[in-house]
Amino acid sequence: MIKFTIDGMEVEAEEGQNVLQVALDNGFDIPHLCYHEALEPYGACRLCQVEITRGNKTRLTTSCNYPVLEGISVQTGTEKVIKARKMVIELLLARSPNVPIIKELAEEYSVGAPRFTLGDDDCILCGMCERVCREIVGVEAISFLGRGSNRKVGPPLEINPQTCIACGACVYICPTDCIKVEENENERTIVRWGRTLPMKRCKVCGRSFAPWFQLDYFGKITEGIPKGFWDKCPDCR
Amino acid sequence: MKSINSPQELQKIREEIVGRRNPEKPCIAITSGTSARAYGSEKVIETLRAELEKQGLTEKIDIRVTGGQGFDEREPLVIIYPQDILYQRVKPEDIAEIISETLLRNKIIDRLLYTDPKTGEKIVHKNNIPFYKMQTPLIFGNNSNIDPTSIEDYLAIGGYSSLAKVLTEFTPEQVIDIIKKSGLRGRGGGGFPTGIKWESCRAAHGDKHYVICNADEGDPGAYMDRGLLEGNPHSILEGMMIGAYAIGSDEGYVYVRHEYPLASENVELSIEQLRECGLLGEGILGTGLNFDIKVSGGGGAFVCGESTALMASLEGKAGEPRAKHIHTVESGLWDKPTDLNNVETWANVPLIINKGADWYRDIGTEKSKGTKIFSLVGKVNNTGLVEVPMGMTINDIVYEIGGGVPNGRELKAVQTGGPSGGAIPASLMDIPVDYDKLKEVGSMMGSGGMIVMDDKTCMVDIARYFMNFLKDESCGKCTTCREGTRRMYEVLDAITQGEGKEGDIELLEELSWIVAEGSLCALGQTAPNPVLSTIRYFRDEYEAHIKGKHCPAGVCKALITYSIDEEACTGCGACKKACPVEAIMGEKKELHKIDPDKCIRCGACIAVCNFDAVKVV
């Protein structure tokens, strides 16, 4: 076990954990938009910054990708931390002024109208969609494109991504809700990536339940599943 | 080249090569690095070869094609040995004369000599030219003595003797001690002590250790590493081999940017030569050292010069930095302990081994040892690569070596450290150049870019230029860097457009804070430096733009107007002809006038006026 302190309180963690997760588990409130416990920490949104003292050095750093280390001292609410958080919120709000979760953060931290020209992009480039697609789903249908102020997330060449199984993991995980899904009896569309796939009907109840392509993919990557399993909807299995 | 299996064989081959050569035999050396090639050096070499052939002199006169020798302003350089005569800006049509006059009749061609602009004196020998006189070319100097594509040339000047010395006389720990004692610090920008880095990497647990040469040089206006890679690739590879022995690595990479085709070519060729003679591979020089080097090309992203982004790129991933809470010496390339050093750092290693740490420590200042190569560019008479001992003042570099500012203009500032550095004002030109002093004045050593600016340079515009570069070259991962640099650029752009507002300076300072404090890698952490240093030293210029809607240097187009001085104008009509938008009116021999509404402030009229009659206000 690794012991260290958060705002003076002694906490214990296992090697390999990150400071943010331990803080959240212990009830500390640290805002974050690009962290999810199922994904590798990435450190893009910069909201989870805290001050960490290691040896005789104290620095502002993101807590999501900071490994727990014996004896460090973490401060989650210093003047510097709050100042940094407010600036990050202002920058995010200027980029994505219509996103509810960012508006809420702005209100919570008393960040007024941004001092910059407002953008209208709901994507904050947290990269959770890219990570869930690569790390969990394993199809890498989307990735970051370009760099600097031209950075965005999208499929290769920004055309219908051929490996996308329209599973909707990206839709589910997106913190700003900027990836939408549309579905009817016959097809499912992940709007942001321009991917539309035909739906399969359950052999038992006849209800359309998932894209053919997705079920084929599941069939390929899973072993020891009874024959016909993917032909039935979850309710009829 | 036959295989070399022991230090004794290496020495024997060296003696054979040197023995075959006659130092008295006439030799024409021609520079043909990237700068020289831009001036047409390849055509000059072709002409020279053909001319020697025609005159039946091929056997009597040697040709040596070298990399750049620093004085890029005057390329291509031709140096004639053994007399050591330097001709500059040589063209193919000069070749026949050089052969018939200088080589055959021993007569100097005045026209091709360098003329000292201060004294008007024609200078014959390279080392008497002021540009070279005050330099200490320990690292870069060998570019003159070798053809970079010839391993024999490198062996002839003692190449790989440091490697042999290390393998036969020292344990890896002793090598690390020598490097530590020498005081060598990283030449890529950070200035971290190289010996300590090697020590930590050696100590790191892992079945595999890597060494990397960072040749992803990307600062605008800086090309020291290119000069070394093109002109003396073996010195860098020898440094890496010594490092590999010290660290316990069997695999190395040279990560060179794609925009340096000649550098890549020369390094790859050198590696092939080494493999061929067994100096790379298993059991190097008959010892237990196994080591090989591969070359990997960058894809054009500035951020890949950052160590963790470089490693990601080497692994085939997008070039994005990662957090360094665990240092790369412990977990770097493919999560293995990795030592990454810059080109120039590696090139220093054989020299330190050869001459000893004590000798090396005597050069430089208390905490910055050795020499540093700078790329001296911008508003300076002698542009090129210069190598000076640490601690030389900027004044000496700009005035003595660089020959001062062109056209008698005044020096305003010198930007060191590229986009991560800062602008140092003219009043601080007497500071000694070393890692700590530059940091103290708000700039940094960086990799060695030195951009000279005159009084016609607008410092707000300079800050805007660098911020534009950085907002495009940020990888875009951190909100603070991506959004912050972009917003800083917007504020700076507005100021130069005459749309600056009260409070903009403070806003820039606030943004600078979050970009520097809140970003993951050194690109973001140092990105605000050009803005902060220009605010620190040239705040009045910012205020003139914001409050007075005036650009004191006459650069920002939205804030200046062109007019013609009634007294000075002779009505010659030159400006009227040059104006691309027909904004100038006036009859021959009468006063001309500029229509401010039509004028696009391009400066074409200023360039052609012989009477200094066009004024910018």
Order of helices and strands of chain A: EEHEEEHHHEEHEEEEH
CATH class of the largest domain in chain A: Alpha Beta
Task: Please state roughly what percent of the residues of chain A sit in beta strands, choosing from under 5%, 5-15%, 15-25%, 25-35%, 35-45% or over 45%.
Answer: 15-25%
Q: If helices are DSSP runs of H or I spanning 4 or more residues, what is the number of helices of chain A?
A: 6
The greatest interface between two protein chains, and residues involved on each side, is:
A-B, 35 and 35 residues
Average pLDDT confidence of chain A is: 96
**Any idea how many domains of chain B?**
5
Can you tell me about this structure?
The complex is a heterodimer of chains A (237) and B (617). Chain A is of the alpha+beta class and 237 residues long. Chain A has six helices and eleven strands. In chain A, the strands form three sheets. Chain A has a five-stranded mixed sheet with strand order 2-1-5-3-4, sandwiched between helices. Chain A has a four-stranded antiparallel sheet with strand order 8-9-10-11. In chain A, helix 2 runs antiparallel to helix 3. With 617 residues, chain B is of the alpha/beta class. Chain B has five domains: 107 residues, Glutaredoxin (3-Layer(aba) Sandwich); 203 residues, 3-Layer(aba) Sandwich (Rossmann fold); 84 residues, Roll (Ubiquitin-like (UB roll)), CATH 3.10.20.600; 88 residues, Up-down Bundle (de novo design (two linked rop proteins)), CATH 1.20.1440.230; 56 residues, Alpha-Beta Plaits (2-Layer Sandwich). Chain B contains 24 helices and 19 strands. Chain B has a five-stranded mixed sheet. In chain B, strands 2-1-3-4 form a four-stranded mixed sheet, covered by helices on one side. A four-stranded parallel sheet of chain B has the order 9-8-7-10, with helices on both faces. In chain B, a hairpin with a 5-residue loop joins strand 13 and strand 14. Classes of the chains: A alpha+beta (237), B alpha/beta (617). The interface between A and B is medium-sized, with 35 and 35 residues.
